[in-house]
Write a structure and sequence with these properties.
Blueprint lengths: L10 H20 L3 H8 L3 H14 L17 H13 L13 H12 L5 H10 L16 H16 L19
Helix pairs in contact: 1-2, 1-3, 2-3, 4-5, 5-6
Length: 179
């Protein structure tokens, strides 16, 4: 993902970046070279060149922030409702086990809000709102650690087989009997 938490830029961060572009515009007006502006602002020369092209085409107004690329399809109120649905657990929605996977969350969103999301769209939605991927670290209750350790020591080496070649080999890359 390009930005932390997959949610794009906050309003404060958009404002901060806009100020950088407008400072660059002041340098453009003074006739400064792109490399000098880039060094002063501590950004790449390529970024300054892109800003200069935008400035040439539309003036300082072209460097202003355009706002977010897209608005979230679920409002904050709807996402709160989704969180309440997820808190009920998968069993409440008809699944036998207690795992929320993206496809199930997608199904709940479709049933509850009549919206269609892609699997990646669901992942981005959840990450943007502070959710993270969780993989349960669980072991079977019946697990016998001593039996597992014994199996690893005794059975696995036999099953794995020897890694050494059966016949004597040569350290040369070519065949030993080649001319």
């Amino acid at each position: 993902m390009r930005y932390p938490q997959g949610g794009g830029l906050t309003a404060e961060r958009q404002q901060f970046r806009e100020e950088f572009r407008l400072k660059a515009a002041e340098g453009f007006a003074r006739g400064e070279a792109s490399s000098v502006i880039a060094k002063d602002l501590r950004v790449s020369v390529r970024s300054v060149q892109r800003w200069r092209q935008m400035w040439d085409e539309g003036g300082p107004r072209a460097l202003r922030s355009q706002g977010p690329a897209s608005l979230p399809r679920l409002s904050e109120k709807q996402f709160a409702q989704l969180e309440a649905e997820l808190a009920k657990g998968p069993a409440a929605h008809g699944w036998e086990d207690q795992r929320w996977v993206l496809s199930r969350v997608k199904t709940v969103i479709g049933r509850r809000f009549h919206l269609t999301y892609t699997i990646q769209g669901v992942r981005k939605l959840l990450v943007r709102n502070g959710w993270s991927c969780q993989v349960p670290a669980r072991r079977a209750i019946e697990r016998d650690d001593e039996a597992v350790a014994g199996w690893v020591k005794e059975v696995w080496p036999c099953a794995e087989g020897s890694r050494r070649p059966v016949e004597p080999g040569s350290s040369l890359r070519t065949k030993p009997d080649s001319p």
